[in-house]
Amino acid sequence: xxxxxxxxxxxxxxxxxxxxxxxxxxxxxxxxxxxxxxxxxxxxxxxxxxxxxxxxxxxxxxxxxxxxxxxxxxxxxxxxxxxxxxxxxxxxxxxxxxxxxxxxxxxxxxxxxxxxxxxxxxxxxxxxxxxxxxxxxxxxxxxxxxxxxxxxxxxxxxxxxxxxxxxxxxxxxxxxxxxxxxxxxxxxxxxxxxxxxxxxxxxxxxxxxxxxxxxxxxxxxxxxxxxxxxxxxxxxxxxxxxxxxxx
Amino acid sequence: xxxxxxxxxxxxxxxxxxxxxxxxxxxxxxxxxxxxxxxxxxxxxxxxxxxxxxxxxxxxxxxxxxxxxxxxxxxxxxxxxxxxxxxxxxxxxxxxxxxxxxxxxxxxxxxxxxxxxxxxxxxxxxxxxxxxxxxxxxxxxxxxxxxxxxxxxxxxxxxxxxxxxxxxxxxxxxxxxxxxxxxxxxxxxxxxxxxxxxxxxxxxxxxxxxxxxxxxxxxxxxxxxxxxxxxxxxxxxxxxxxxxxxxxxxxxxxxxxxxxxxxxxxxxxxxxxxxxxxxxxxxxxxxxxxxxxxxxxxxxxxxx
Amino acid sequence: xxxxxxxxxxxxxxxxxxxxxxxxxxxxxxxxxxxxxxxxxxxxxxxxxxxxxxxxxxxxxxxxxxxxxxxxxxxxxxxxxxxxxxxxxxxxxxxxxxxxxxxxxxxxxxxxxxxxxxxxxxxxxxxxxxxxxxxxxxxxxxxxxxxxxxxxxxxxxxxxxxxxxxxxxxxxxxxxxxxxxxxxxxxxxxxxxxxxxxxxxxxxxxxxxxxxxxxxxxxxxxxxxxxxxxxxxxxxxxxxxxxxxxxxxxxxxxxxxxxxxxxxxxxxxxxxxxxxxxxxxxxxxxxxxxxxxxxxxxxxxxxxxxxxxxxxxxxxxxxxxxxxxxxxxxxxxxxxxxxxxxxxxxxxxxxxxxxxxxxxxxxxxx
Lengths: 247, 304, 366
Description:
The complex is a heterotrimer.
Chain A: E1 6-17, E2 20-31, E3 35-40, H1 46-53, E4 61-66, E5 69-70, H2 75-81, E6 82-85, H3 97-107, H4 112-126, H5 141-152, E7 159-163, H6 171-186, E8 190-194, H7 198-201, E9 206-211, E10 214-219, H8 221-228, H9 233-241
Chain B: E1 4-13, E2 16-26, E3 31-35, H1 42-49, E4 57-62, E5 65-66, H2 71-77, E6 78-82, H3 93-103, H4 108-122, H5 135-147, E7 153-157, H6 165-179, E8 184-189, E9 200-205, E10 208-213, H7 215-220, E11 226-231, H8 234-242, E12 247-253, E13 256-261, H9 268-277, E14 282-288, H10 292-303
Parallel strand pairs in B: 3-8, 3-9, 6-7, 7-8
Antiparallel strand pairs in B: 1-2, 1-4, 4-5, 9-10, 11-13, 11-14, 12-13
Chain C: H1 4-17, H2 19-39, E1 47-53, H3 58-69, E2 73-78, H4 82-91, E3 96-100, H5 104-109, E4 114-121, H6 125-147, E5 156-163, H7 170-201, H8 203-208, H9 214-242, H10 252-276, H11 280-297, H12 310-316, H13 320-334, H14 338-364
Parallel strand pairs in C: 1-2, 1-3, 4-5
Antiparallel strand pairs in C: 3-4
Helix pairs in contact in C: 7-9, 7-10, 7-11, 7-13, 9-10, 10-13, 10-14, 13-14
């Protein structure tokens, strides 16, 4: 595959903790601008795998590139070219909206001029301009979520990793959040997202399902449904992940 | 009898109105779902019913006992689990269960009948520390601990949050089986798809009840015509529809789009031709019955 | 480096917006400096003295008056015999005594060596040494004054004898304070953290919705700490007696009673701390700042309370460790019975009741 077109390429990636194999030889390729859903039960190895992709954890074996950089030797470069949003939104509650934007933007290496520019743009797009100086802890959940995502992409990274970004949020906010994801993907940002909402799996271009450290299904949702003869992603999950959830 | 009656309960924390005039009646033996997102007021309502919190105004009773004046009696007869992980992670599975039996002055043997179906699934791990269990197993243990003293009413606050979909499904199967034992079960959840598994549901958002009915009742109360559009790319369709003046709302639902026309005055043909005009071909457009989530979204926008 | 700047700015925001952190960074150092500044005194003031004058002649009376006239000493008892002296020490009526031997005037004026003895309470070695120095200078100037000759060899020979710990056993010095510290640490701090943990993880709420009352939960959690602390007491005292040969002059039974009472007081404070904090972290912080530190600095463990300024002395009274160490020293070192420590026991018991009462109110509120 054309290197410029591939955002993420991993081959036989593994992670062992002593005797325990958390990630067992997984391989996948994600195209630029793709929305890729990374599914799996808790403890299946999703988080461990994502940490390796983000350059946060060393691989026990295997090879790959993320945003064109080698995951074994160029972890620092990877970190600079990706965005990351964690489950609990990674915003500082005791800082204001703008202080959060400014902090993360400078951590990502943006100049003060750029920070102001992008920051203002971000606020307008989210409709939060008048809340520039509001403490994050006073914001409703949905706003925090959208702010966190916008901050994760403020430096226009090639790939953004989202770790269960829509937990517990109302259905309307969830959807407007996914609009942000769609927009980002349209602009060429690759989105790598994990989720517990099976309907969100269907919003993705392709998904992978991890069970016990291995990838048991990989492909477009529609294709997988035909292949495994299930009605929806729920059914796919049930079929492949059921036995392991009771361990 | 073993029912829950909530009458105009309100509760504020400073300026935040957590609950606003909530009234509900849950009948004996019902599996009742409180459906709503984070911050809707679910936990606050539950805490006031199990006597951990005093409401600012209004009254409520559990098994005909007042939640303010009969606190001690209520605490003897209800089972309460606030989320999946309120167990002791440094005690074993068995030690946790025995502890909860002991503090209620009962034994595991006495409650065995009630917990048997669930217990046999985790019994092989009975010496494992609770902290080392998977999310699904912790859930099952928590349920056992709540049931072991044979409560009359069960309050489960978001028992399936953060748990994988398979375990979620299994959990609800266990709840339905418990109904056979005539326990009243009041469950809260942010997952709309779990609503259909309940006898009746109340949809809650921002401290107010949007609707109370059986799942079918909620669906039947949906007053508009709902269309399902099956596209190639969901986002392309959404973007196009946003610009249509005949669109009242369009929302992504999995790999399709749910569309409501303005004044219910839009036909399938009109939708198809508008999309075609904008270069979008779709697999089909058809009218469908709404899901609970469709109803929730509609109720939310009604309130706005 | 530009990479550091955003972090530095952000951290300042966090610090100034968090009251607890501000307290520790600014208020705590000020408090400590004040405490240390005033607590470490190399002066003594109004030390309670008794003068046993076995001469009762012109010079001895003059010397007595000069001593009493100084601002360092206050005449706190009139004694005529050695055994009366002993009793005054035991009662705590006096901190120091001077014994002037017979034929003082005769020997003094004839420039014969005469031995004046200082008796000091050994449980405050610091004070004893300073006392000797002060008396030395008073006597020095008395000699010069009366004999009108600065070059004369000092006829008065001043010797210091420490009572109740003549061999200066270190173990007497630190065992009471150490006991207070360890008991405070295990009982109060551990129990407050443990109780707050249940609140933090949510299990406390689950326990409340049961036949259990708050006091069941609390007492049930405290009893293991009580038992373990009693074992600690036995081990510490046992080790001190057996390995370090620390003698115990009072009744062992009374000793344990005092320890257990203090234990319960410490536990009640631990419960109170847990009732006003929500996280283990703040429970730990509050316990250390409000309990551990004062036990070290303000209980008389290291720095004698009598030497502190009046305001600080007043503040010391509110810390249970102070009363515990007093009672302990009286029983262990002085060998006093319950009639000498009833006040300390009463104070500790009242503090216990007070903190338990407050905690019960807080825990039962919904």
